[in-house]
UniProtKB/TrEMBL annotation:
Positions of transmembrane segments: none
Annotated ranges, domain Amidohydrolase-related: 3-330
Protein known as: Amidohydrolase family protein
High-level lineage: Bacteria, Bacillati, Actinomycetota, Actinomycetes, Kitasatosporales
Record-linked InterPro entries: ACMSD, Amidohydro-rel, Metal_Hydrolase
Keywords, alphabetical: Lyase
Organism encoding this protein: Streptomyces tendae
Gene3D superfamilies reported in the protein's UniProt record: Metal-dependent hydrolases
Length: 341
C-alpha cells in the first residue's frame, strides 16, 4: 500500500468558507454569529469536492489511503477567542469525518484542535476526545503558534501542553506539528511560516526533555522537517553543547518526518540524513504547491516519484510508503486490518 499521512481538505464546498466569513464578521459586530446548523452541505457536494480532485489524483499516483484533516491555513487559531475556534474546529472536523465515511477505504480522518492564543491547551481535550471516540480520528494537527506568526505560545516542551500530551498518549494517537496561516507580513504562510515552524519545533524538542516524561508520545514534523535535514550537523552540535544525548537517542525514537519536499535533491537529502524508519510518505496533495514543474513535466507534489527514485532499498521504500505509517498511526493500522488490508 501507499499511505499519504498528510492530506488537507483544501477543496471543501464554498459554503464552509461562507460560514467562516459570517463568523468573522460577527466578531466585528457587523453581523449575527452563524449557528452550526446554518452550514448545510450535502453528501453529494462532499463527493463532488473530492472525487474530481483528491481522489482522482490519488488514483493517478497510486495512493491508496490519505490521512485527511481540515485545511491547515483555515485553522486560523488567531481569529476570535476559544469559543470561535471551538465552533470552527467542530465544523471542519465533522466534514473530514463525513468525507471519510463516504470513502472509508480512501480517507481516514485527522482532527484540528480548537486552540486559541493565551488559552490553556487543556481546553482542546474535549474536541480531541470527541474526534477520536466518535469520528475515529487517527491523529491531530497541533499548532505550536496559535498567534498566527507572532510566536507568543510557550515551547512545545512547556508543561502547559502536558494535559494534551497525556490524552494523546492515552489514545495512542500522534500529533502532526502544523502551524496555520501567518498574519505577520514578515512570514509568508507556506513559504516561510510553515518551514520556520517545522525547524523551530525540532529545536524546541532538542532543547528540552519532553520524551523523558512522555516516552511513547509521537510527533510528526511535516514538510520534511523544514531546515532540519539540511542542518543536521548544526543540531547535532547544539545537542552536544546543551549536554543532551545524541539525536538518535534524544528525539528520533519519537519524532518523524514526512516527504512533503518537492524536488529530488531535497528528498534524497532527507532520506540520506534521517533514518528511513523515521520518514513517512506524504504529498500534502492538494496543497500549497499545485503546479507542474517545468523542469520535469510532473507535478511538484508528486512525491512518490522522488521516493522511488531515491537510493533506498526496496524494503526501505516499502517502509516509507506504508509500514512506518502503520507503526506511527496505530489506530490507522487497526482500521486497515479491520478492512482486511
Amino acid at each position: 500500500m501507499i499511505i499519504d499521512c498528510h492530506g488537507h481538505y483544501t477543496t471543501a464546498p464554498p459554503a464552509l468558507a461562507a460560514w467562516r466569513e459570517r463568523q468573522i464578521a460577527a466578531l466585528a459586530g457587523s453581523a449575527a454569529a452563524p449557528s452550526p446548523a446554518d452550514l448545510r452541505i450535502t453528501d453529494d457536494e462532499l463527493r463532488e469536492s473530492v472525487e474530481p480532485n483528491q481522489l482522482r489524483m490519488m488514483d493517478e499516483r497510486g495512493i491508496d489511503v490519505t490521512v485527511f484533516s481540515p485545511r491547515a491555513s483555515f485553522m486560523a487559531h488567531h481569529v476570535g477567542d476559544f469559543r470561535t475556534s471551538a465552533a470552527w474546529a467542530a465544523l471542519c472536523n465533522e466534514l473530514c469525518h463525513r468525507v471519510a465515511a463516504l470513502h472509508p477505504e480512501r480517507f481516514v480522518p485527522a482532527a484540528m484542535l480548537p486552540q486559541s492564543p493565551g488559552v490553556d491547551p487543556v481546553t482542546c481535550v474535549p474536541e480531541l476526545t470527541r474526534c477520536v471516540e466518535e469520528y475515529g480520528a487517527v491523529a491531530v494537527n497541533l499548532n505550536p503558534d496559535p498567534s498566527g506568526g507572532h510566536w507568543t505560545a510557550p515551547p512545545l516542551t512547556d508543561r502547559s501542553w502536558y494535559p494534551l500530551y497525556e490524552k494523546l498518549v492515552e489514545y495512542d494517537v500522534p500529533a502532526m506539528v502544523h502551524v496555520s496561516t501567518s498574519v505577520n507580513p514578515a512570514f509568508h504562510t507556506t513559504g516561510a511560516h510553515y518551514l520556520n515552524a517545522d525547524t523551530t519545533a525540532f529545536m524546541q524538542l532538542v532543547q528540552g526533555d519532553l520524551f523523558t516524561d512522555f516516552p511513547t508520545l509521537r510527533l510528526v514534523l511535516p514538510h520534511g522537517g523544514g531546515a532540519v535535514p539540511y542542518h543536521w550537523g548544526r543540531f547535532r552540535g547544539l545537542a552536544l553543547a546543551l549536554g543532551k544525548p545524541p539525536l538518535e537517542e534524544h528525539v528520533l525514537g519519537n519524532v518523524f518526518f514526512d516527504t512533503c519536499v518537492y524536488h529530488q535533491p531535497g528528498i534524497d537529502l532527507l532520506l540520506d540524513v534521517v533514518p528511513a524508519r523515521n520518514v513517512l510518505f506524504a504529498s500534502e496533495m492538494i496543497g500549497a504547491v499545485r503546479d507542474v514543474d517545468p523542469c520535469t513535466g510532473h507535478h511538484f507534489d508528486d512525491t512518490r516519484r522522488y521516493v522511488e527514485a531515491s537510493a533506498l532499498s526496496a524494503e526501505q521504500v516499502a517502509a516509507v510508503r506504508e509500514h512506518n505509517a502503520r507503526s506511527v498511526y496505530p489506530r490507522l493500522d487497526a482500521l486497515l486490518k479491520r478492512q482486511g488490508r
